[in-house]
Design goal:
mainly alpha, 5 helices, about 110 residues, 3 strands
Length: about 110
């Protein structure tokens, strides 16, 4: 997966627009996704998303991570097992990155 790029030195006002800011607790994230906290833990264990940890050790999720988790939930709801859903999302990310690179102008040697 594409690693999160949250910078803790980001000014408070900019955090509202930072999709990598870990602003959601596990409970809130699960509620927003309509899933369980165990589902989110399983995505962490599978390596699909790695939430930030608060000073107390609690998982905190960013909007970017919630979008990834929502895609995983969609695949699971369609009948995929979690490991397969995580692999599909990983491959989709790799494909997207390759397409982005191919679309950018190549430097002449």
């Amino acid at each position: 997966m594409i690693p999160d790029q949250y910078d803790p030195a980001t000014p408070a006002a900019d955090k509202f627009d930072d999709e990598n800011y870990p602003g959601y607790t596990m409970g809130r994230a699960a509620e927003m996704l309509g899933t369980t906290q165990n589902f989110l833990r399983s995505l962490d264990e599978a390596g699909l998303i790695t939430p930030q940890r608060s000073t107390g050790g609690h998982r905190r999720y960013s909007r970017h991570q919630l979008r990834i988790a929502a895609r995983a939930r969609q695949l699971v709801d369609e009948g995929m097992v979690i490991d397969a859903a995580c692999r599909i999302i990983s491959l989709e990310d790799q494909l997207h990155e390759a397409q982005r690179r191919n679309a950018s102008p190549q430097l002449a040697d």
